[in-house]
Design goal:
about 240 residues, mainly alpha, Hypothetical protein af1432, about 65% helix, globular
Length: about 240
């Protein structure tokens, strides 16, 4: 059993790595992990998964980012097991949380219901316009997109990744939520504007949520409303758009 005290320690650990270590501290202040934890709690309850394990996995799912290879199953698992060594929890729960993290990028099929939840949580955070912003941010700060020379190939790479993640969803409830927060149809010009602005501001260390605010003058009103709805997680409260 994972206690609330242990979960708080895990939360602090995950946020410290995400804000202060990953990408040289450029992502400090972003709310991705907090939204992920809320999504994990909601989704785990809906599908009957172990809530504490899923929430722990969601707080830790990006801890391999500083390694430069968060897609590697074994690397992810080793990093999490090492991080959890001094946290008061059973070895079984350490292994369960590590499994959630190891398979969250979809490169390996999740081996538990809790791992499916954490995988789907990260996919939902990569849905719609938020997904375009977040993946552009990641690629820019990984040196894979040149913020000064964004190309149509860059846009295709980002959009193809977001679409691929959506196809990997594991639970019916996540598929339902994905349909709610997916972006309204956007033409290539709008997508290019989103990626250009996101890349430029990402290279300057501006976090996702602030980039999203700046998109208000760039994207259609309906699309911006869906983006804000997703960021505020009002869809989890049953509130209509």
């Amino acid at each position: 059993m994972i206690t609330e005290e242990s979960l708080r320690a895990i939360e602090e650990l995950g946020i410290e790595i995400d804000h202060d270590v990953a990408f040289g501290g450029k992502s400090k202040g972003n709310q991705h992990l907090r939204r992920s934890a809320a999504l994990a709690r909601y989704l785990a309850q809906k599908v009957g998964a172990n809530v504490a394990v899923a929430v722990a996995g969601s707080w830790l799912h990006d801890t391999a980012l500083p390694s430069g290879n968060d897609y590697d199953y074994d690397t992810n698992k080793e990093i999490v097991l090492a991080l959890l060594r001094d946290i008061d929890m059973s070895q079984h729960d350490r292994e369960a949380a590590a499994e959630c993290v190891a398979s969250h990028e979809g490169t390996v099929a999740p081996k538990s219901l809790e791992a499916q939840v954490v995988h789907d949580v990260d996919v939902l955070e990569k849905a719609g316009i938020l997904g375009i912003i977040r993946h552009t941010w990641k690629l820019t700060n990984s040196g894979k997109i040149d913020a000064k020379n964004v190309t149509s190939v860059d846009c295709d790479t980002v959009c193809d990744h977001v679409a691929w993640r959506q196809r990997q969803l594991r639970t019916d409830e996540a598929r339902r939520l994905s349909a709610i927060v997916s972006a309204p149809l956007l033409d290539d010009t709008v997508v290019m504007a989103i990626v250009k602005l996101s890349a430029k501001r990402a290279s300057q260390g501006v976090i996702t949520e602030k980039i999203a605010q700046e998109l208000q003058s760039v994207i259609p009103h309906r699309a911006y409303s869906v983006l804000r709805y997703q960021l505020n997680q009002d869809y989890l409260k049953g509130e209509s758009l």
